[in-house]
Structure formats: C-alpha cells, structure tokens
Amino acid sequence: MEEKNNKIDIILLLVFTALLLGVNIYLFAGKILPVNAIGIGIVIAAILTLSLYSFLYKDNPFFKIAENLFVGAGMGISVVIIWFNYLKPELYKPLIRYAVRDNIPGEPNFWLIIPMLLGLFMFARFLKKTMWLSRWSFAFIIGGGAGISIPVVIHSFILKQIEPSLQPVFVDGSFTLQSINIILLLSGTISVLIYFFFSTPHTGIVGNISRLGIWFLMVAFGASFGYTVMGRMSLLIQRIQFLLTDWLKINIQ
Amino acid sequence: MSSSRCIFIFLVILLIVFGLSRLGGTISFAQSNSQLLPLQGFTAFDTPNDVGDSVGLIWKVSENDREGVHYIVSTAPSQEGGGDGQWTKLDPILSTTCYKSDFPQYFGIDESNKLWHFYEVSVTTTTYFKLAITDGVNIVEFPSVVSATPKGNWFDTSKVNILVCVIFFSGLIMFFIRAARHNPNLFIRHIPGLDAIEETIGRATEMGKPILYLNGLHGMDSLSTIASISILSKVASKVANYDSQIKVPCYDPIVMSVCQEVIKEAYIAAGRPDAFKSDNIFFITNDQFAYAAAVEGMMMRDKPAANLYMGYYYAEALLLSETGAATGAMQIAGTDSITQLPFFITTCDYTLMGEELYASSAYLSREPLQLGSLKGQDVSKALIILILFIGSVLTTFGVTFLTNLFRTF
Amino acid sequence: MIELLLNIDRRIIFALVFLAVIIPLWVKIDLPFKPTATVLGVYDRIESLPENSVVLLSSDYDPQSRAELFPMHLAVLRHCFRKNLKVISMTHWIYGVGIAEEALKVASNEYNKKNGEDYVFLGWKPGFAILIIGMGQDLYDAFPTDHYGKNTREIPMLKNVSSLRDINYLVDLAAGNTIEPWIAYGRDIYGFEMGAGCTAIIAPDMYPFLQTKQITGLLGGMKGAADYEILLKQGTLAQEAMRPLTAVHILIVVLVLLCNILYFITRKKDGRKKQ
Question: At A189, which helix (H) or strand (E)?
Fold first, then answer.
C-alpha cells in the first residue's frame, strides 16, 4: 500500500514539474509574460508559491527547496540592509573609516567605541574562555531594557487602562446602552482577573466569578479565532489573485 | 482789568476746551475699547517637568474672551527688544483656547485652573515676553514685560503615581519572594491541567509509547520557556519513575542543552541514570515551519501517546496540535501566546492559559522566585480589582478623586 | 454518514476553501459594505489635518503580511498625498524596506509628489523602543541620513521636524508587536496622536487601546483596508478580496455549525450507548 502511495506521489511530482515547465514556457513563448527581470521574477514567485502550497498535499522536495530559498534569501537581504542602513552610516563612517582610510575630513566619534565593544562582546559567547564578556553586554541590555520599559509599561498598559475603566455607570444620570457596555467591561475585567487569581481556591462565589471569567475569555478567543481566519484567508486570496492576474494574466475584474 | 478778565476768561475757556478735549479723548478711547478690559496676572516661568526647552506664560481669563478676540504674545531676547528694538510676534492665540486646565501634567487637576490661560513657548535661553489682546480693531497691551529662563527638571512630578506603583508592586513581589524562601508551601490553587499531565504519563506507560514534549519557539530568555523547563523537570521525574519514554525535539540549541541537563537530573534523582537517553532530546532547526514539519513527521511516524506543548508558539501552533489530534494522542498545551490560545483550546484536551503556565511552573517547582512573583502578582491583581470596583462606584456617584489618582499624562 | 463526515479527508476541506475563493473572484456580486467606526477614526483624523501637516507612517510589516497591509498602506498614503500632507515613512522591520519604498513610489507618482519636499523615506533601523525614544529626543540624531544616504538635517521637508513632538499624526501599519511600543514610547511620552492598521490576527489585542483613546482608530486586516478604500473612493486591492473573503467566511461558519451539530449528535448517541 505504502509503495503504491509512493508511486502515486512520484507521478504527481512529475506531473507538477511538467505542468510548471509547460505553463511557463507557454507564457514566455506566447509573449504573455515579458522575458525580462519582471517576467522572470513573476515566474519565480509563482513557482515558489505553488511549491509552498504543495505542502497541503504532503511534504515534498518542492516545498523544501522553496522553504530553504526563502530562509536563505531573507538572510541575504538582512545582511545587505544591516550594512547599508545601519552599520555603514552609524559605525563605519563616523568611526572605523578613520582607522582604515587616510585623509578623511572631520573627527572620528570615539564614543562609538563603547557600544561597538558591547556589540562585539556578544560574539565572545562562542569561546568558553571569553564567554563571561558577553554578560556585560547582556547586563547592559537587560538593565537598560528593564529601566526603560517598567515605568512605561505601568504608565501605558496599566494606569492608562485603569483610568477609562473607572467610568460612571449612569451616563448623564440615565441608564443607557453605554451603561451596559461599562458594566460588561467592568465585569469582564474583574472576572478574568479573578480567574487568573491563584492564591484562593476557586470555590463558592470566587468559583462562580471565575467561571464567568472563562466565558469572557472564550468569547475573546472566539473573536480572535474569527480574526485569524480572516487573516489567513486574506493571504490565500491575495496569492490566488497574484497567480491568476499577474502570472497567468487571466482577467478576473 | 477788562483785558486781564478777558485773558482770564480766555484761559478758563482754553482750560475747559483742553479739559473737554482730554475728557472727550478718554471717552472716545473708552468707547472704542469698551469690550477689551485690561489684562491681568501675566506671568512667565520655567515650564515644570520638562527638559528645559520651554517656558510657560499664564494670564487671567477675562470677559474679553470670545470668538474673534485673540491674544498676541511677542518675544525678544532683552527687555528692550531684539537688536533693532523689534519684538517677534508669535501666532495669535484664540482667546477661548489654551487654559491651564488643558495641561494637568503641569498644574494638576484643579477647578481654578479654568480661570487662567496657559501658553507654552519653546525657547532655550532667557526670553522676554509681552502680551496684548486684540479684537481685530483695537489692541490692549499688558503694561509690563515679563521674562523667564528655561531649566531642565530632574524630577517629573506628573509621574509620581507611576513611581509609587513601581515601588509598591516591586516591593510586594520582593516581599513575597522573601516569604517564599522562608515558607515554600505558600498556597497556590489547584490547576486542573496539571492532573492531566500525570494521567498522560500513566497512559503513555500503559501504551508503551513515548511522550512528546515541546518547549515552544522562544529561547532561554523567555519566561514561558523557563516555565516550560520547570514543568519538564517534573514530567521527566515522573517519566523516569514510571519507566516511560520522553522525546524533546528542540527549536533552540541552548534550550536543548538545558533540557538534556534537566532530564538527566530527573533520571539520576529517580535512581535510574542508565535509562537516560540523551539522543531523545535533540535539536531540529530554528526555522519555524521546517521545525513544525519535522515534528509533524515525528508525530505521524511515532504516534506518541501524549503531546505536551509548553512555551511560546506562533503560527505553527495549529499545525502541530492539529496533526497531534489527528494521531489520536492526548494533548496538553500551556502558552502565554494569546493569539494561539484559541487553536490550542480547540485541538488539545487541556490548555494552560497565559499565566496558568507560570502558575503551574511555580506550583510544581516551589521555587521561591517564581512562587513569590506569583503571590506578589496575585495581591496586585486583588488591589486592581478593588480599585476598579470602588472607583466605578465612586465615579457613578460623582466622586472622582480615585480616578484622578490613576490619571497619567 | 456521520462517521464519514467526521473523518473527512482534510484535503477536501482545502479544496472547498479553494473553490470558495476562486469562484467569487469571477462571479461579481455587489455586497453592501459599510465602513466600520474604527476605520473612520483614522480616516477622519487624517481628513481633519490642515495642509502641510506632518504624518509619520511606520510600515512595520514584511512580504508575508503584504496581502493585508499593503492595500491599507497605499490607501493611507494616497489619502495623505491627496490632502497635501507631508509624509515621513520608515520601518522597524528589516524586510519592510522594499514594500515601504514600493508604496511610496506608487502613491507619489499618482500625486506627483517629490522626495525630500513632500515625503521622506527614513528606511530601517534596529532598536524598536530605543529608536522611538531617540526619535522623540532628536530625529536627526536617530536618523542622521535617510534611506538614500541624504543628510536629514538638509532635507527641506524635515526642516521643522526635529523630533516626534513636531509630527501631527502617526499611523503604524503592523504585522507584529510594534503598535504597543509606538503607543508607550512614542505617543504617551511625546504627545502626538496616532492611529493603527494591523493584520487581522493581532487586531483583537488592539481594541483596549481604542477604548483608552491611545489610538484614534484601527484598520483591522483586509476588511479595514477595504473600508478605507471605500471611504477614499480610490483603490480596489482590498475591495476585490471582499467577495471571496465573504464566501470563505460563510463556508467556515457552515463547517463550524456542521461540526457542532455532528458533535452533539455523536455525544447523544454515545450517551444512549452508555445507558
């Protein structure tokens, strides 16, 4: 049975390859796609898209090639952008350039030596003897990061969130739809907080409130699930639009 | 005499005419400016709570303020004006705008702030200011020139409530960490998902099949991974006791080394170091979908009795747990990745949601740092619940002091 | 029958989803779409800005999220250029550089806007929160040059924009967690107003910030982008996707309902068997 399945898989793989080749030759030969960088780019993008979608059937060599290409190309782009957008203007030009070239106008910015060293210490982790140096960099990152983020988190994500939760239930002295919203918001926040309260057993009234909290959580997860479906389907639709209009030049408007 | 009388009468008439003309002038001035009263209380000062790049101007709200009436602020580097004695006029300020009450970060929350105008001018050196009011026809100036020098402030008083919160919450957590060091048996409520872990290990032992344990996609710097390792340590000791088998495919090489050590220790503690197989804890790749594909392959081939997903996950969560469900394995997940929770809830038998993951880790490890943090957070949560409840009741009855305490700028 | 449905090959569901996407792409049905209030929050704010106001557009996404975010990126840029606003574009995501450049190119060509005068592209830089704080203190120091190597102090459009305090509005288009840093380290410290657009997956997490008015509005996923195109009466990238998206949603809802019905039937049957 497994052997038969393997044979089917091989046949499908060959058919898939032949189809890809045939369609692209037709597109180029029939001048539907131009034989230039744009045309070749579209064909590569289409082949990679289909190769990645082939995983829906089964893991296969096309999927693996496309995946590795994706990772490799991503790394390549990162290296180029990090150099041209960051290291060159921020470190090479104001500091290192003065050490490796003559007759450069202006003065080097020696302050940059400190962050440069901290950055280099991160690589010290690769050697057992120098591993301790990387701790300085980590200490700087963690200390600085915590110092900057703790007050900001309390400000923006705790106090700023508490403030609008303290709303009068009666809007202009009367009970309106807005009042229901406020009550829902308040009971949702309190019950979910009680659900995530670990110092009391969830029995009696606390148990009942925490059960209400679970309901609120499930509604939130449902909303999240719905949004995720929309997100994933949007990606699929855009890819199919690309395959039909940009690659196959089929008019769907 | 008559001539002197004539001169006298002439002088009297002259005086009367002069007086009348002055009076008339005053009357005409008063008439044309009848709706522009003199300006009051114009003062300049260094803007509080800033880095020293501005000064503030205040003056009293008056009956002049209405649509079409503007205040004009002029600046100069000296009392006599600029180099050529000129004053630079800033953009006109509509008289019905710019109140002290619009800037609670500088002046706090006070009803009397509505009675003052406030205008902030960006300057870095001592600057002199003049203030005038105009309705488009007439202008009334404040009689004197005021000045101020901007200074940087070390302390931002508008953020005192944040400082209090940081100190209070940190203190609370530190206090409970200390308490947990003295008494590691601090109460933590029972978490249902944890019972299921024992059940899964028993099931795996009965079936003679392995348990697959995943640590998520984060490194050792992530709280969820640390919690996951704590849970792994307890799972591994039970596995060692039951003579079952555990497989841990890793996404991160450092996490892999830690897992190997943790499981090895568990086997040694169980008195069965010979049963430990380091090959069962292995690194796959740190590419998200390649990792997912490899683990899915393992699930399909090995058909583990149970899959445990603890840690932080991204889009691969559903791929993994769906495949696991298809193989019929019992599945338990624990993650603080909110976006992936719905998928774990729908595909797993038990799910530890968000903080439950940390709580489980503290519950199992009884490690003072985790236990104390959890307790400290619990008390913080209780306080927040109390504030929300009391604050809402008070606000409903028009008492806003509690809301103002938590107001941030 | 029930057993058959419960053990259906997942590839059949994939095929159904594929059909639900492809058929509505051809079959034109006019669906009544009404822009949501959260989208209006961004649109109205940009609409209310006077000419020459400065809008910072942070496009923090990569090609993987292009489907959802590029249409809203283009729509917001078109809106800014139509209103003669000055645009500063940047990205926190290294792979977002190419897309941000492409969007600027398309929109600026449509409205005949010039680089350096009407818009500026600062490019990418690492740091997230630190970069935002740096921009708040001194924009020229945080970005000494723009993406093309031009000194930012010499760019005419940035003459009066020395820090984040000088911008009038910020829109963050995010595929990850960049909206929160922009709020916490940018908006809440430097006092500018901001709106956001994001992928559907992270949209639910952003609603608390709408409630606190830390963001004026939110464009959530493809629907948010389509709403913006409708308001703008320009662009069809997202609107075209609404028909297949609606069809797929209907399919998913039907499948969820069906699965639940089957679940309750099997549970009832199991219950009877046990009795």
Answer: helix A177-195
CB contact under 8 A, A234 and C144: no
Reported as a single tens digit per residue, the pLDDT across C221-246 is 999 999 999 999 998 889 989 999 99
Distance in angstroms (rounded) separating the CA atoms of residues B114 and B121: 20
β B246-250/C218-220 pair status: unpaired
Determine which helix (DSSP H) or strand (DSSP E) holds C275, and give its type and residue range.
none
CATH number of B43-155: 2.60.40.10
Chains that touch B (3 or more CB pairs under 8 A): A, C
Stretches where chain A sits below pLDDT 70 are 1-2, 252-253
Q: Which residues contact A227 (CB under 8 A, 6 or more apart)?
A: C200, C201, C203, C204, C220, C221
Domain ranges of chain A: 2-93, 109-166, 174-253
Measured between beta carbons, the chain A residues lying within 8 angstroms of C25 are 237, 240-241, 244, 252
Alpha-carbon distances of B164 from A150, B45, B70, B178, B249, rounded to whole Å: 12, 28, 41, 21, 45
What distance in Å separates the CA atoms of residue C56 and residue C38, rounded to the nearest whole number? 19
DSSP A200: S
**What tokens appear for A193 in the block?**
């907080």
Instruction: State the residue for tokens 């990090």.
Output: A82
What are the tens digits of pLDDT across the range A152-179? 989 999 899 888 788 888 877 788 888 9
Say if CB B90 and CB B78 are below 8 A apart. no
Q: Is A11 exposed, middle or buried (0-12, 13-18, 19+ CB in 10 A)?
A: exposed
CB contact residues (below 8 A), chain B span 333-352, against chain C? 338-339
C210 lies in the same domain as C87: yes
pLDDT of residue B291: 87
The burial class, CB within 10 Å (0-12 / 13-18 / 19+), for B54 is middle
Query: Does some domain include residue C242?
Result: no
The answer to whether residues C19 and C152 belong to one domain is: no
d(CA C191, CA B409): 9
> Sign of torsion, CA B48 B49 B55 B60?
negative
Q: Which CATH superfamily is domain B186-365 in?
A: TPP-binding domain (3.40.50.1220)
Which of C201, C207, C214 has the most B C-beta neighbours within 10 Å, making it the best mutation to test the interface with B? C201
CA distance A215 to C91: 38
Q: Which of residues 369-388 of B touch C (CB under 8 A)?
A: none
Which candidate, C153, C90, C77, C86, places its Cα nearest to that of C125?
A: C90
Question: What is the ipTM metric for this complex?
Answer: 0.87
Residues C152 and C267 in one domain: no
C-alpha closest to that of B337 among B360, B362, B355: B355
Paired with B309 in beta bridges are B214, B333
The backbone region for B45, taken as left when phi is positive above 0, alpha when psi lies in -120 to 50, beta otherwise, is: beta
Mean pLDDT of B11-17: 53
Question: Can you list the positions of beta strands (E) in B271-343?
Answer: 281-283, 306-312, 330-335
Q: Are strands C119-124 and C86-91 parallel, antiparallel or unpaired?
A: parallel
What are the structure tokens assigned to B314, written together?
A: 């991204």
